[in-house]
């Protein structure tokens, strides 16, 4: 019985790639040094899977930024602004597309389906001259082969690539991206030919858009693409992999009749309904790659339950055609539990990170082949029972409080227009008020202080003194820049979710449970293992200390319940909405304590609300109902004069704008600049928005510093569709990933642009 891994984490167990990338970007190391770190990581990953007994080991899942950008490089689809002159795409062009450079901005970045991973959105049009410009897929296959490991090269499928793209600037928004299929397939054929010549016997196409709601012409594009590739694929075993949701019946029919395809991969964790389609009939003689081990969460697999599922599938496709697999790439989970010596022993027994999931996949494959490891299965069953019955998981008081939420929609009593009037009387802000999103640069010294405090190398008194000094610097800088509503810069927080999770019950934390978000950016999601409550205030001390340093309004900074949920590894033993309501009640307690302490502006970030939207439209309404409700629960009890902000970033919000309005926040700040001001189009189309709104005026994920004129131009575009009295001026997102040498001039230009337009608006009256 064979085993397969869809993909594997790239950063390394100690984030080796992150540090190598940042060293290269800072000019402290060479391209050769970055390539050496990367090659060592790939070698280690391939050998680990081979040693674990995995038969189908993926290659070309490693990336310096993301796999979609890698495909853009492979196809030579470089936007003209990067001045690429052909040939093999090098680091300069590649990273300029990802991060921008001194003269041009980066390409748009958005969420990968409903995960916290991001990808760079291809910009395409009728005039793009495609060419085979990155041989990475072939070179990595050869690299693994030189180590004695035969791999399955993985490519983003041609149709999925086009469906994830957008029309380039200047191209009609209605341009049919699928019309480019005939232009990109010749390059796919070249790649396939080179892989065959190098000795590949399998190839994997990730066609993950097949789980989406697709129209008939989109499904026909899959049929057309693989019919065109059929002769090129002759002699290869071809796996088309899907993940993250059920495959709809029409897509299942299209997929299972594709020409030249010998194997189908399904997510049977998030796509349990696909089981019924498989049982209804899979073409005979085809391989089924059964994704029964969860690639998106960190809970140990219920091996006995998975084995039952696999036995039922074995009866449909036959023993020799069933392959045990992960539900999706393990990119979305942490790397290895071995790196967690301090994690609570009982909780640790309930978990499986990527390295452990590889072992689970192989154990299931061996069990199907009649070589069941009884001791391994017995230990797994004991851990499942321990988790189910642990008193640490269940808190009756929390469950009762959450159950009592039913029957109310938790709306503030006064409408937003009246609240904004009351808040303006108290805050006395100018038109086009300026603010930032929360965090300021996390310096090496600041990280050292937090690290030493955590390691008990400095006292609590020394830590508090150092953090207060940092807050004071951030407050003074904002006052010097003449920003209207201040933030304390979050120097006490390494991560916006981890910080809160550490102070809530029902959460566990790792030392090295890092997961890639984009590029070199890694996050360390908390683990929600039990019922959630707030034992003590979490931010009141720091917020009141910051407010005491200035007469200007100081925002209290919180992470919202939906974002905490979506950016955590969430318990899978109860519905997600129940856990979210519990978190909402905990945040509600904190909001009310901040208000009592004299904080008049409170920001409750919901950066990940859109990210959690199910992939299928039929499931949208239910999710949005409980997600928006959870946000309203957090601030239903505050006075009209307390201004509630929220923040959202790096997703397409246009399709949920009415739900955003339904959140009933007083002010929303939202990513806008990197996505070609796509957000503004909903207001041009007539959506009325009466609350305060701050579409981002510059992209903080690029080191580029925008000019005053550029920012003023962006604000003017906003003023064309939004009322002057509701518009705020702010960056796209928090500033923690930037340097002060970038932040100061950018904010200076932002404030100057706001003042310039205030003057123009005043003189126009």
TrEMBL record:
Cofactor: Zn(2+)
Binding residues for Zn(2+) 1: 647, 649, 671, 733
Role this protein plays: Catalyzes the transfer of a methyl group from 5-methyltetrahydrofolate to homocysteine resulting in methionine formation.
E.C. number: 2.1.1.14
Gene3D superfamilies named in the record: 3.20.20.210
Binding note for cofactor: Binds 2 Zn(2+) ions per subunit.
Enzymatic reactions: 5-methyltetrahydropteroyltri-L-glutamate + L-homocysteine = tetrahydropteroyltri-L-glutamate + L-methionine
Chain positions recorded as Zn(2+) 2 binding sites: 658, 662
Classification via InterPro entries: Cbl-indep_Met_Synth_N (IPR013215), Cobalamin-indep_Met_synthase (IPR006276), Met_Synth_C/arc (IPR002629), UROD/MetE-like_sf (IPR038071)
Swiss-Prot/TrEMBL keywords: Amino-acid biosynthesis, Metal-binding, Methionine biosynthesis, Methyltransferase, Transferase, Zinc
Cobalamin-independent methionine synthase MetE N-terminal domain mapped to chain residues: 3-315
PANTHER family for the chain: 5-METHYLTETRAHYDROPTEROYLTRIGLUTAMATE--HOMOCYSTEINE METHYLTRANSFERASE
GO biological process, one term: methylation
Domain Cobalamin-independent methionine synthase MetE C-terminal/archaeal: 432-755
Transmembrane parts of this sequence: none
Associated pathway: Amino-acid biosynthesis; L-methionine biosynthesis via de novo pathway; L-methionine from L-homocysteine (MetE route): step 1/1
Active-site feature positions: 701
Gene Ontology MF terms: 5-methyltetrahydropteroyltriglutamate-homocysteine S-methyltransferase activity; metal ion binding; methionine synthase activity
UniProt enzyme class: transferase
Species whose genome carries this gene: Abeliophyllum distichum
Binding site for 5-methyltetrahydropteroyltri-L-glutamate: 18, 116, 521-522, 567
HAMAP family: Meth_synth
Similarity remark: Belongs to the vitamin-B12 independent methionine synthase family.
Protein name as catalogued: 5-methyltetrahydropteroyltriglutamate--homocysteine S-methyltransferase
């Amino acid at each position: 019985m064979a085993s397969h891994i869809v993909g594997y984490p790239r950063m390394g167990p100690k984030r080796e790639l992150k540090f190598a990338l940042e060293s290269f970007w800072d000019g402290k190391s060479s391209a050769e040094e970055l390539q050496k770190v990367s090659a060592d990581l790939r070698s280690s990953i391939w050998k680990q899977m081979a040693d674990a007994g995995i038969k189908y080991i993926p290659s070309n899942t490693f990336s310096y930024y993301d796999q979609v950008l890698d495909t853009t490089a492979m196809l030579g689809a470089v936007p003209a602004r990067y001045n690429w002159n052909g040939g093999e795409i090098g680091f300069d062009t590649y990273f300029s597309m990802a991060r921008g450079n001194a003269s041009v901005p980066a390409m748009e970045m958005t969420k990968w389906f409903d995960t916290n991973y991001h990808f760079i959105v291809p910009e395409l049009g009728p005039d793009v001259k495609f060419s085979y410009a990155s041989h990475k897929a072939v070179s990595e296959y050869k690299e693994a082969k030189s180590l004695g490991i035969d791999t399955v090269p993985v490519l983003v499928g041609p149709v999925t690539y086009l469906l994830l793209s957008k029309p380039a600037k200047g191209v009609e928004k209605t341009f049919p991206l699928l019309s480019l299929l005939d232009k990109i397939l010749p390059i796919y054929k070249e790649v396939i030919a080179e892989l065959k010549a190098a000795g590949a016997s399998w190839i994997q196409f990730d066609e993950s858009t097949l789980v989406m709601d697709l129209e008939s012409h989109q499904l026909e594009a899959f049929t057309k693409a693989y019919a065109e590739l059929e002769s090129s694929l002759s002699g290869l075993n071809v796996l088309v992999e899907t993940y993250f949701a059920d495959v709809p019946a029409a897509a299942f029919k299209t997929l299972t009749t594709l020409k030249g395809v010998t194997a189908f991969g399904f997510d049977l964790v998030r796509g349990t309904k696909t089981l019924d389609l498989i049982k209804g009939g899979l073409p005979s003689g085809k391989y089924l790659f059964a994704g029964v081990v969860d690639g998106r969460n960190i809970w140990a697999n219920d091996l006995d339950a998975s084995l039952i599922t696999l036995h039922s599938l074995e009866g449909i496709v036959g023993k020799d055609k069933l392959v045990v697999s992960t539900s999706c790439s393990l990119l979305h989970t942490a790397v290895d539990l071995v790196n967690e010596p301090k994690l609570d022993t009982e909780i640790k027994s309930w978990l499986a990170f990527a390295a452990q999931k590889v072992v689970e996949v192989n154990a299931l494959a061996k069990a199907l082949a009649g070589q069941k490891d009884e001791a391994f299965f017995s230990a797994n069953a004991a851990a499942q029972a321990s988790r189910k019955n642990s008193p640490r998981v269940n808190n009756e008081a929390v469950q009762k409080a959450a159950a009592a939420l039913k029957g109310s929609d938790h709306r503030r009593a006064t409408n937003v227009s009246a609240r904004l009037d009351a808040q303006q009387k108290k805050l006395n802000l100018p038109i086009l008020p300026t603010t930032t999103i929360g965090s300021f640069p996390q310096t090496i010294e600041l990280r050292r202080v937090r690290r030493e405090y955590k390691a008990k190398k400095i006292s609590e008194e020394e830590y508090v003194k150092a953090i207060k000094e940092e807050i004071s610097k951030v407050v003074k800088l904002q006052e010097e820049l003449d920003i209207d509503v201040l933030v304390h810069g979050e120097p006490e927080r390494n991560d916006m979710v981890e910080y809160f999770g550490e102070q809530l019950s029902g959460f566990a934390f790792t030392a090295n449970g890092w997961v890639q978000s984009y590029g070199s950016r890694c996050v360390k999601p908390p683990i929600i293992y039990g019922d959630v409550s707030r034992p003590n205030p979490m931010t009141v001390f720091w917020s009141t200390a910051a407010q005491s340093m200035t007469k200007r309004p100081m925002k209290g900074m919180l992470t919202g319940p939906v974002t905490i949920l979506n950016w955590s590894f969430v318990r899978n033993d109860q519905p997600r909405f129940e856990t979210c309501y519990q978190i909402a009640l905990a945040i509600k307690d904190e909001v009310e304590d901040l208000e009592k302490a004299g904080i008049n502006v409170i920001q409750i970030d919901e950066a990940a609300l859109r990210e959690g939207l199910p992939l299928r439209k039929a499931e949208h309404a239910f999710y949005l109902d409980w997600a928006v409700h959870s946000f309203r629960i957090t601030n239903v009890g505050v006075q009209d004069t307390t201004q509630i902000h929220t923040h959202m970033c790096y997703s397409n919000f246009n399709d949920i704008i009415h739900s955003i309005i339904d959140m009933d926040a007083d002010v929303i700040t939202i990513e806008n600049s990197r996505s070609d001001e796509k957000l503004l189009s909903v207001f041009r189309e007539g959506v009325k928005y009466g609350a305060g709104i701050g579409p981002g005026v510059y992209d903080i994920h690029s080191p580029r510093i925008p000019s005053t004129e550029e920012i003023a131009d962006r604000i003017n575009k906003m003023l064309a569709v939004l009322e002057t009295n509701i518009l705020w001026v702010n960056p796209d997102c928090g500033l923690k990933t930037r340097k002060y040498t970038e932040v100061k001039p950018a904010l200076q230009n932002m404030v100057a642009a706001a003042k310039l337009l205030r003057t123009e608006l005043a003189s126009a009256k």
